[in-house]
Amino acid sequence: MRQEVGHKISAIVFDGFGTLVRIGQRTNPYSALFREGRRQGVAVSPDSTHFAMTANLSFDQVADHLGIELSSSKRAEMNDALGKELASIEPYPDALEAIDQLLQAGVAIGICSNLAQPYGPAIRKVFPHVQCHAFSFELGVMKPDPRIYLSICRELGGAASLDGFETTRENDRVVMIGDSRKCDRDGPRAVGIEGYHLDRSGMGQISDLMQFANLVTERNRAI
Q1: H/E element holding 22?
Q2: Strand 164-166 relative to strand 159-161: parallel, antiparallel, unpaired?
Q3: Bond preceding residue 144 cis, omega within 30 of 0
Q4: Do residues 108 and 11 make contact, with C-beta atoms less than 8 angstroms apart?
Q5: 73-118: pLDDT as tens digits
Q6: Long-range CB contact pairs, 131-139, < 8 A, 24+
Q7: How far is Cα 132 from Cα 157, in angstroms, rounded to an integer?
Q8: Rounded-to-integer distance, Cα 196 and Cα 189, Å
Q9: Which of 55, 151, 166, 221 is most solvent-facing, going by the fewest CB within 10 Å?
Q10: Which range among 64-78, 97-111, 159-173, 191-205 shows the weakest confidence by mean pLDDT?
């Protein structure tokens, strides 16, 4: 973490999946839906995935909008698979500990994630004390679109622009961390937010969220 003398970290934005939470039982319901669409001759493309993650629609509504016909049994099967995946979502232990430490230290917390509508409530349930969210299905844009970062900054009480970011307190800063270099490190940096990559394999500079939380608290104490 870069040491910026005089710049206290007042808020942290976390990515969702792969950073704060993981899926214990992957059933990949949307992939199964798209496969069924292709089998039917529906023109399924990367745009379909983008649509599913930026439209505030249920699983069934996405299928209907794309023109994928599901029998009652197939619809029940896919919704059951979705339910199993959602029920298996769990927080990383270090995520709970890190957020608790940061909140106690007075750091505001936000979550910014690319996800389809059914997954939003699962994240909110795991982290009920986090009130600021920027979810792609609610905003209609996905990381690394600058607008999703600017939205979470506004929720956190800052004033953001494409030229940079300053919080409402002079010389304070917001940082973001997540498991995607493109979306959680480089995307935020493009709008003036400090972005960091979380590499849970242990091969990168930051391998868990408690390490990151300690770096933040140490930096703030030094200012």
Answers
A1: strand 21-23
A2: antiparallel
A3: yes
A4: yes
A5: 999 999 999 999 999 999 999 999 999 999 999 999 999 999 999 9
A6: 132/108, 132/156, 134/13, 134/110, 135/111, 136/53, 136/54, 137/53, 137/54, 137/55, 137/56, 137/57, 138/56, 139/54
A7: 10
A8: 9
A9: 221
A10: 159-173
Nearest to 143 by CA among 173, 123, 113, 163: 113
Using CA atoms, how far apart are residues 35 and 222, in angstroms rounded to an integer?
53
Contact 23, 123 (CB under 8 A): no
Quote the distance between the C-alpha of residue 153 and its chain's center.
14
| Tokens describing residue 116 | 């389809």
Q: CA separation (Å) from 205 to 2, 146, 198, 202, 209?
A: 12, 25, 8, 8, 12
Task: Find the radius of gyration of the CA atoms of the chain.
Answer: 19
Tokens of 218: 């140490």
Q: Which two tokens stand for residue 160?
A: 């953001």
